[in-house]
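Figure 6 in text form: structure in, sequence out.
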C-alpha cells in the first residue's frame, strides 16, 4: 500500500512522512478512525514508507525490494496481530492458512471492519479475540533483530478485542520496546482499550472520508458514472467500505422500493408489508443493508429539510423531489423512533437474523409510529 493509493487525507500523510524524514518516529502510535476510514490503509502505507529503500518526499518508491514485499504483505520485518475465532494451532498448516487468508483480506478490503473480516474468514456468529498466546508469540519474534528493513513494524488491528491477560502482556512490550521497533495500533473504538495502553501511544486521528473524496475514488478508479458515484458517496456517509458494498452488491434502485415501502406503512397495508418482506428477502444481505442505509439517509435529509436547510441536501433531482414530499410526513416527534427502528433492523440484518421477520416487524412498528 502506497500513500498515493489512499484518496485524500493529504495532511495526515504529510504528518507521517515528516516524522520519518525528521527522524521523529514514535515507537507506539494509535491510528484512530471510524469504520470504513483509512486507518488500516494508512498504517500499511506508513509501514511501507518506513522501510522503503528509496523514499520520496511524498511517498515510497513502490519499486524497491522492500516495497515489493510490503505490497504482498510478506516482508519479514512486518508483523500482524489481529482477532481470530478460537485458538490458533502452534504448528502445521492452520497458521499458514490463516496468514494467507488474512493477507488476502487486507489486500482486498483495506477499509473493512471486524464484521467483514469475520465473514471473509468464514466464522460468522463466532466470537473473535486476540489471545495472550499470540501476543507472546509476537514478543518472541520481536526479540530478534530486523531481517532486512530499518524498522520492525507491528500492526495491531483492533487491539481492543483482547482480554486483560493479553492486554497486560502487550502493555509490557510497549513499555520496553526493542530498538527500531514501531507499533501501530489500528483502532475503531478507543474507549474499549486500556487507558494505560493509550497513554503510551502517540494518537493519530484518521478522519472519515469526505463525500467528494469517495466520489472521486469511485469515478477515477472504478469508473463509476458521476451521477451514481455522487449518490453512493452520499449513502456511504464517510465509510469507503460501505461505498464498495453498495456499488458491488446493490443492483436495484432503492428509491422506488423505499417509496413503495413507506406508502404501505403510511396506509397501514399489512398484507402488502408482508409481501414486500418477500421482495426484501430476494436481496442479498448487503443489498438489504444498503436499502436500510438509503432509508436512514432519506430520513436525515428530510430532517434537514424540516429545519429549513434544503441547500445542505445534495441529491439527484428525482430523489430530491421525493425527500421534499417525505419531509411533510416526518417530524421531530416521529423521526427519531423511526430512525431507531431502522438502525435496529440494520443491526439484526448484519448479524444474520431472519430477514423476513426483521422487515415485517420493522414495517409494522414504523406504521404505528407514523399513525
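Output sequence:
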Amino acid at each position: 500500500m502506497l500513500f498515493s493509493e489512499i484518496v485524500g487525507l493529504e495532511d495526515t500523510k504529510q504528518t507521517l512522512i515528516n516524522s520519518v524524514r525528521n527522524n521523529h518516529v514514535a515507537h507506539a502510535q494509535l491510528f484512530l478512525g471510524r469504520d470504513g476510514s483509512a486507518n488500516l490503509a494508512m498504517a500499511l502505507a506508513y509501514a511501507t514508507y518506513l522501510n522503503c529503500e528509496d523514499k520520496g518526499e511524498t511517498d515510497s518508491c513502490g519499486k524497491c525490494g522492500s516495497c515489493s514485499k510490503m505490497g504482498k504483505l510478506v516482508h519479514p520485518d512486518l508483523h500482524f496481530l489481529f482477532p481470530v475465532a478460537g485458538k490458533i494451532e502452534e504448528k502445521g498448516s492452520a497458521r499458514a492458512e490463516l496468514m494467507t487468508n488474512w493477507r488476502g483480506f487486507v489486500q482486498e478490503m483495506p477499509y473493512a471492519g471486524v464484521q467483514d473480516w469475520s465473514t471473509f474468514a468464514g466464522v460468522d456468529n463466532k466470537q473473535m479475540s486476540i489471545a495472550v498466546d499470540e501476543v507472546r508469540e509476537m514478543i518472541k519474534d520481536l526479540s530478534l533483530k530486523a531481517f532486512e528493513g530499518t524498522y520492525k513494524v507491528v500492526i495491531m488491528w483492533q487491539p481492543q478485542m483482547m482480554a486483560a491477560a493479553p492486554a497486560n502482556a502487550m502493555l509490557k512490550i510497549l513499555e520496553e520496546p526493542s530498538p527500531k521497533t514501531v507499533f501501530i495500533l489500528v483502532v475503531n473504538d478507543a474507549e474499549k482499550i486500556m487507558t494505560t495502553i493509550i497513554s503510551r501511544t502517540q494518537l493519530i486521528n484518521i478522519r472519515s472520508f469526505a463525500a467528494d473524496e469517495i466520489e472521486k475514488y469511485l469515478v477515477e478508479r472504478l469508473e463509476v458514472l458521476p451521477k451514481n458515484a455522487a449518490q453512493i458517496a452520499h449513502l456511504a456517509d464517510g465509510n469507503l467500505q460501505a461505498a464498495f458494498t453498495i456499488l458491488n452488491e446493490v443492483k436495484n434502485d432503492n428509491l422506488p422500493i423505499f417509496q413503495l415501502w413507506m406508502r404501505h406503512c403510511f396506509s397501514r397495508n399489512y398484507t402488502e408489508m408482508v409481501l414486500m418482506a418477500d421482495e426484501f428477502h430476494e436481496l442479498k444481505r448487503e443489498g438489504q443493508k444498503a436499502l436500510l442505509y438509503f432509508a436512514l439517509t432519506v430520513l436525515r435529509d428530510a430532517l434537514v429539510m424540516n429545519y429549513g436547510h434544503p441547500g445542505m441536501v445534495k441529491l439527484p433531482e428525482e430523489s430530491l423531489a421525493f425527500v421534499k414530499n417525505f419531509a411533510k410526513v416526518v417530524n421531530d416527534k416521529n423521526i427519531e423512533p423511526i430512525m431507531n427502528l431502522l438502525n435496529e433492523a440494520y443491526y439484526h440484518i448484519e448479524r444474520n437474523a431472519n430477514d423476513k421477520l426483521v422487515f415485517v416487524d420493522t414495517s409494522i412498528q414504523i406504521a404505528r409510529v407514523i399513525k
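Caption detail: The longest strand covers residues 181-187.
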